[in-house]
Specification:
7 helices; Aim32/Apd1-like; 26% helix; five-stranded mixed beta sheet; alpha+beta; Sucrase/ferredoxin-like protein; Glutaredoxin
Length: 316
């Protein structure tokens, strides 16, 4: 008698589980001092992610970058975005934390995309001696990096691709981008130079956010945070974005987080908006955690922190 094999139940997409649980994504944006975007064809994404196959040169570049991260106290973001035309020579877009977000510089070369390590080294570690590279003017306006990396997580393929297409069709500068973390927030996007990370975007909502035709209060539940600040400060930063509207993104802001134990953390955010200096403080507490899958391909549940904010005070 032949054995009947029952296929295992299909796992739900992690993004669906996150939305169903009502997860608040704030405080999940990475904290970056610098962000580099490599324009790489989609097949090259897997090569860069295959750490075991890195050459000695590639490993050396990342060791040097690790030193920069440790010195700055903030992370280094690396994004892989598909170029406008496949097969183009390697281009690099480099963002550094500045006033009101990040400032951008662009570089181009005649090198093949497989020389991405040389691109990182020349434009980041030895920027004074570019060699095969040339700095070119950066175009004005925002870039929307939408994760469409379905081979890493099916949720990003299902939800990210329609958002990317809608942004392109709406006339926005959007990029198909490789995995940058947080696929349970699909469709998720990094907006630069504002430094905002978004969660659970739909095609319609992504267009509204890109055009700033919707008030931040209406999309507060879709904001992962501002990458220029540490996670707990991102919670207070969102409150100020809701209070001041999109103009808040022009503010120069720095934060200090004082951990106070079980009562929460006291966050102080100093800012300058429209030439006026101010200070905001708040108590950020841990809320009731959620237990959600971190991937659409594994059933394991992880503990997800949720935050509450109290005692928000602003002085000018």
């Amino acid at each position: 008698m032949s054995q009947v094999v029952t296929p295992s139940a299909r796992l739900p997409l992690c993004a669906d589980a996150s939305r169903a649980a009502g997860e608040d994504p704030v405080g999940t944006a990475p904290h970056w001092q610098e962000v580099t975007v490599l324009e790489l064809d989609v097949p090259v994404w897997a090569q860069l992610r295959d750490v075991d196959a890195w050459t000695a040169e590639q490993r050396g570049v990342f060791e040097a970058l690790r030193g920069r991260v440790e010195a700055s106290g903030a992370g280094f973001g690396l994004l892989m975005s598909a170029p406008e035309q496949p097969g183009q020579p390697l281009r690099v877009r480099h963002y550094v934390r500045g006033e009101g977000g990040f400032t951008r510089r662009d570089y181009q070369s005649a090198l093949p995309q497989t020389e991405w390590a040389r691109g990182l080294s020349a434009t980041l570690l030895r920027s004074g001696e570019l060699g095969d590279w040339a700095e070119v003017p950066a175009p004005p306006g925002p870039d929307h990096h939408v994760c469409t990396h379905g081979t890493v997580d099916a949720a990003c393929g299902k939800y990210g691709v329609p958002v990317f297409r809608a942004l392109r069709e709406g006339g926005h500068r959007a990029w198909r981008t490789g995995h940058f973390g947080g696929h349970r927030f699909a469709a998720t996007a990094v907006e630069l130079p504002s430094g905002l990370l978004w969660a659970h975007l739909t095609p319609e909502l992504a267009d509204q956010v890109a055009r700033r035709t919707i008030h931040p209060a209406a999309v507060r539940g879709h904001l992962r945070g501002f990458a220029g600040l540490p996670p707990l400060a991102q919670v207070l930063d969102r409150e100020l974005l809701v209070r001041y509207g999109w103009d808040w993104l022009e503010a120069e802001r720095t934060a200090r987080v004082d951990l106070e134990g079980e009562e929460g953390a006291r966050v102080t955010l100093d800012f300058r908006l429209n030439g006026q200096a101010g200070r905001a403080t708040a108590l950020v507490r841990d809320g009731v955690p959620l237990h959600l899958p971190g991937s659409s391909h594994k059933a394991d549940l992880g503990r997800i922190r949720q935050y509450g904010v109290e005692e928000v005070r602003v002085s000018l």
